[in-house]
Amino acid sequence: MSSTTAGSVAPPRVETPFRRFASEFAESRLALFGLALFTLIALVAIFAPWIAPQNPYDLAQLDIMDGRLEPGSVGGADFTYWLGTDDQGRDMLSGIMYGLRISLLVGAGSAVIACLVGASLGMIAAYAGGRTDSLIMRLVDLQLSFPAILAALMILAFLGKGILNVVIALVVVEWAYYARTVRGSALVERRREYIEAAQCLALPTRRIIFRHLLPNCLPPLIVVATMQVARAIALEATLSFLGLGVPITEPSLGLLIANGYEYMLSGKYWISFYPGIALLVTIVSINLVGDQLRDVLNPRLKR
């Protein structure tokens, strides 16, 4: 009897760091809503070529006679435009789906590259110290002293339009945030015993920095990266709205908003309104996730 009872007792559940992180993250319903919303937006952007009613890049599918139709209107080919059309007859729903692809690609791509560059320079500055630290941090201070939009405008005025040029401009204006964040965390971790032990073992400097020091600086880096993705998307939309972002043949959400700006006062609100709503929802969803990540990964903010 006792052996049967003992055999039926389930083993204790081991709480791994990932389970603890997931449970703490799930405490916020807003964060879960933001994560689900952003996942839906990302899936729509990824599968846009298969689920979009129209290819807005294919000129053969556009009919200028269907230009500026109201939401819910039926076009010449008995095609229903649920969100209306722009001045070129492009379906706004399809344009938003494809525009999300460009905005997310530019935002996430620039954030990843800027994170790699900034984190590497921040780690090197913290570990090397001395003149190397002073030189890198003076470059960071110089970069942060310029308004991001102004620096990006100057870079694009020199490089010209294009997705690659926009990514380069965003990387230049974003890397300093990662460098400063990583350096602050690395300065604290550099005094830990495990770093001293690695140095006593005569491990290569590159291995100490990227195999031992960097993983312990990831929590604040993840939070900054999440916020910078939303910031990069907003900045790219601003640049495209001003006419210095992506080309007209591959419109992002910012360019879609710019295309309908001149019609706002004439009652044709949908050309700018719906892309603006899509941009707002995307940024808000990312910020909701980033706020909860900040609370979970920063022990000082825990209640």
Automatic annotation (TrEMBL):
ABC transmembrane type-1 domain residues: 100-290
Keyword entries, A-Z: Cell membrane, Membrane, Transmembrane, Transmembrane helix, Transport
InterPro entries (alphabetical): BP-dependent_transpt_permease, MetI-like, MetI-like_sf, OppC_N
The organism's place on the tree of life at top rank: Bacteria
Transmembrane residue ranges: 30-52, 102-128, 148-173, 269-290
Membrane topology designation: Multi-pass membrane protein
PROSITE patterns in the cross-refs: ABC_TM1
Main localization, broad class: membrane
Keyword rRNA processing among UniProt keywords: no
Subcellular location: Cell membrane
Matches recorded under PANTHER family: ABC TRANSPORTER PERMEASE PROTEIN, OLIGOPEPTIDE TRANSPORT SYSTEM PERMEASE PROTEIN APPC
Family: Belongs to the binding-protein-dependent transport system permease family.
Name this protein carries in UniProt: ABC transporter permease
Organism encoding this protein: Siccirubricoccus soli
Taxonomic classification: Bacteria, Pseudomonadati, Pseudomonadota, Alphaproteobacteria, Acetobacterales
